[in-house]
Amino acid sequence: MAKKGKKSASKKSSRKILVFFLLLSILIILGIYLYFVHSYWDKFIDNTEVAGYDVSRMTLAEAENFFANKSSDYHIDISFRMDETETIDSSDIDFKYNSDSGLTRAITDQNPFAWPVTLFKGSQYDLESTFSEEKLKKKLKSFKEFDKKNMIAPVDAYAKWDESDFVIEPEVMGTKFSVKDAISAVSDAIHGVKTSIDLEEFYENPEIYSDDKSLNDQVPKLNELIPNAVTYEFPDGSTKTLDGTVLIDWLDKSGDTYTKDEEKWNEHITEYVKELGASTDTIGVPHKFHTNMDTDIEVRATGYYGWRISQEAEAKQLAEDLASGENVSRIPVYSMTEAASPDNNNGFGKDYIEIDLTRQHLWVYQKGKVAFETDVVSGKNTPERRTPDGTFMTYDKQKDKVLRGDVQPDGSYGYESHVNFWIRLTNSGVGLHDATWRSNFGGKIWITSGSHGCVNLPYNAAKTIYEMVPEKMPVIIYYS
Question: Per the domain annotation, does 293 fall within a domain?
Fold first, then answer.
């Protein structure tokens, strides 16, 4: 019985010790818990962030002082398209943390009794700020991205002619955005003490992208309607290509569908050839010329010499080329041509006639050198009889021709003159011919006793020129 009593007493003693240590542990834990409750009563709990900064164990006053000092460190990074970024520093906008109400709210919201939970979960609080809105606007508008002159508007994806066929030209996202909305967003971000903002949502965007189904259906249809291009080669070495960039506008478009109206198509061809001639023909435009006196002049824009596209023949040829399905490079179909390329004596070549009406003299050039020259008498110096200056050519030649003036009221001609050698220059009857009724040439004769507009030549000179000059030779006439 004695042994049994001893074991029972031992067990009781062990229980008392266990209870003692358990109560002691609880008291210690409770003490630690209450210690930290007391510690956090007027301080921020560990693992607490305000505006991204760790304020653990700071008092309200310490935190306010901390943020007062941190105001100078604030900056915000602004992200734009094209990987462009700009930064605004606190000094740019007189930035300050508005910590009074924000920190008070943060420390009031925390529960010191729940500090163990906060240690693991942590707490984050935002702050607001004060800054100069005017300085912010001024700073933002100083950035190149905010300058509307630098902004690129978005461009829709579209069908583009690319040398030999149509392809899809990808959209251009552009860099154009709403300045007003962007300024407002940046302002809000700074008020919220954000340190970065991306302005992507404020950009204008294309309406049609390269993966658009309708656009992808258009391209093969366009390549079927416009399978080729025509390149014109001009005498001056320049070229002009008629391709899909222009031809697409000749098609009819209904919604996203293109069709070809043959009648309208041919009308466009006719109009295009007309505009081509207007921009490239050299008849009726001033010509540069290097004179016998070794001077460079510009001959008036009169006369019949130059390049002229044959409108009807060229339109027919262009229609055939566009229907062939093959790319074509060629010169236009000309009805009139110059004697040489523009880089060869301004298009006159080495064989030509030069007439200086002021000096009343004529030169015939062959192979670039004077082969013959003579004095002349040109039209009388009155508006109706003055010899026209400009660039011409020897249209045709005749022997034994009778030149006649205008028909008079009585049916007779104003004059009738037989000439042995006639070289026509204009449709109005101006030409080169012998004048056997004259005994003198050159000088000032033309002023008071000139011809009716033709260039009079001595008989032998007219014969020589008639024999040495072919048809279609350039004739340059000017007053020096």
Answer: no
pTM score, two decimals?
0.67
Q: CA angle 41-34-122, nearest 5°? A: 60
Q: How far apart are CA 375 and CA 360, in angstroms?
A: 6
pLDDT of residue 9: 64
**Cα distances (Å, whole numbers) of residue 260 to 183, 232, 247, 254, 478:** 50, 23, 10, 11, 51
Of the listed ranges 117-121, 126-130, 262-266, the least confidently predicted one is 117-121
Does 365 share its domain with 445?
yes
310/375 same-domain check = no
Residue 33 resides in a domain: no
Please compute the mean of the pLDDT values over residues 400-412 and round it to a whole number: 83
pLDDT value for 5: 55
Residues 454 and 356 in one domain: yes
pLDDT of 241 reads: 97
- Kindly tell me if the per-residue pLDDT of 240 is higher than 90: yes
The answer to whether position 103 is within a domain reads no
Domain enclosing residue 318, as ranges: 226-288+299-336
Query: Residue 319 in contact with residue 312, Cβ under 8 Å?
Result: no
Q: CB of 353 within 8 A of CB of 431?
A: no
Question: Are residues 273 and 354 both part of a single domain?
Answer: no
Mean pLDDT of 38-56: 81
All residues at 6 or more sequence positions from 98 whose CB lies less than 8 Å from its CB, including other chains: 127, 128, 129, 130
3-state SS of 272-308 is HHHHHHHHHCCCCCCEEEECCCCCEEEECCCECCCCE
Number of domains in the chain: 2
**For residue 416, what is the domain's CATH number?**
2.40.440.10
Same domain, 361 and 457: yes
Q: Is 147 helix (H, G, I), strand (E, B) or coil?
A: coil
Q: Which residues contact 11 (CB under 8 A, 6 or more apart)?
A: none
Q: What is the pLDDT of residues 423-478, one digit of tens each?
A: 999 988 899 999 999 999 999 999 999 999 999 999 999 999 999 999 999 999 99
Domain for residue 464, yes or no?
yes
Q: Are residues 326 and 354 in the same domain?
A: no
The Cβ-side half-sphere exposure at 172, using a 13 Å CA radius, reads: 8
Q: Are 413 and 325 in contact (CB under 8 A)?
A: no
* Same-domain status, 451 and 417: yes
Last residue of a domain, one of 277, 308, 336: 336
Q: Which residues contact 75 (CB under 8 A, 6 or more apart)?
A: 87, 88, 89, 90, 195
Angle between helix 133-142 and 179-191 (nearest 10): 130
- pLDDT score recorded for residue 430: 95
